[in-house]
């Protein structure tokens, strides 16, 4: 059977790639959304911290014998701690100012982090082998599914849904939602909002670190891997709506698939389709598909 | 409750309080004190600085100087959440109901800041409408219901000092009456209340003492028993 001159197997393969890219878009844009909700800062350092996550996994494995599974836990923790330091030392001072300052500061941070990794590791890239348990694949009948790729999609979805659940359905999430609307009042009701903001930034960038570890076995571990990806992720955020939790998850996955379908139907457009959609959304619904207009 | 009414124990003492919003100097040396179990009002014309006084107590303005003692503790250098945790409940002028929370989530949001707060059941008995609408989005409630919700959520926390900003503003007479009942009930329970009111007729029978604020200063202090003899002064100051 053929669709658009592509076999079903080819189509399924493309869709899987789309789903994997979409998973990364979702986890990264989710982190950006969570951070934007509390800090009102567009975290340009996100891509660099994602890259750092991949590198820390690689360094852990090659220099310290820390395996993939341990890295999946430790690296987000480390990146989260780094985030806490960044928030306390730098971002804290910018909240009274225009959004633009936070953006510029995090952009500068991204350049510094990338510069450092480029200096120490060059740009040729390192490879990271998938963990033993996830090598190989299964035949699904209509396609061959490499296990690791299936794992990436599942792990991303679980993390996204868990985050969504915490924010939308728990007491802690109620604090976060209320804090997004009116942080001063939330603090006047007795909640330690500054601490909440610090931990939110830590959590948001930990998500980037997590995505970095997930990506290490699929992509080249390379100092530029973050800046390549993050541009698309920003477009995803704009399309989904700044700060929307569900929006970032759904839009991330959806756009990964749209990109894949475009690659099947009209490959020449696949690199730009997301940006075309972004322009259309900005014109028609500036707050984004899931954003609240105000 | 053992501390129900202790008229001579000071709950809140404000001395020479100045407060700023950015460069604007709004409060110019507020002095007032409130004893445990008292109900005190801040009266004044629009823009006099009453809301700012409540915000300055909680540390919600910009820079502030002077002294705000809460139960004998200096709070002028504390961040708002620590001040609130000393046992203050704040009901802001704009009500501050969160749109992204259900009515019940709004109600359960503030953490306990003292012991002896009302149970959820007791609150729903006091505000039956809120029980019916517990699953609705907070801002879908009517104005009156939102005001009830803003009051109810600080009654759960065990706060001993309530700062209430224009709670009757824009509400129907029946709802104003109901709120008057609530204030009386709270006073009987020994809570201390600072009430900012535009509506003097609502405030007069409830309060032990009235302060008149003008241009960020206290310009008049009228006790309950002086009320009838000082009425003309008040009328003049408030333009009512
Ligand atoms: N956020 C703010 N920034 C600057 N000025 C403010 C702000 N809020 C209030 N003011 C000014 O402070 C003064 C006192 O306001 P407010 O305390 O709200 O008065 P009241 O509650 O007595 O009506 C007014 O002149 C008002 O314009
Ligand atoms: Mg006011």
Key features of this structure:
heterodimer, A: 294 residues, mainly alpha, two-stranded antiparallel ribbon, 11 helices, 3% strand, B: 240 residues, alpha/beta, Rossmann fold, 6-stranded mixed β-sheet, 9 helices, globular, binds adenosine-5'-diphosphate, binds magnesium ion, nucleotide-binding (chain B)
Description:
Chain A: It is a multi-pass membrane protein. The complex is a heterodimer of chains A (294) and B (240). Chain A has 294 residues and is mainly alpha-helical. Helix content of chain A is 71%, strand content 3%. In chain A, the strands form 2 sheets. A two-stranded antiparallel sheet of chain A has the order 1-2. In chain A, strands 3-4 form a two-stranded antiparallel sheet. In chain A, strand 3 (137-139) and strand 4 form a beta hairpin. In chain A, helix 9 (225-240) crosses helix 10 (245-265). Chain B has 240 residues and is of the alpha/beta class. In chain B, a hairpin with a 2-residue loop joins strand 9 and strand 10. The chains are: A mainly alpha (294), B alpha/beta (240). Magnesium ion binds next to helix 1 of chain B.
Mean pLDDT of chain B: 92
Task: Enumerate the spans of chain A where pLDDT stays under 50 for 5 or more consecutive residues.
Answer: none
Order of helices and strands of chain A: EEHHHHEEHHHHHHH
Q: Note the total helix count of chain A.
A: 11
CATH superfamily of chain B: P-loop containing nucleotide triphosphate hydrolases
- Poorly predicted spans of chain B: none
Tell me how many strands of chain B there are. 10
- Helices of chain B, by number, come to 9
Overall geometric form of chain A: globular
Beta-strand percentage of chain B? 25-35%
Query: What is the string of helix and strand elements of chain B?
Result: EEEHEEHEHHHHEHEHEEH
* The level-1 CATH class of chain B: Alpha Beta
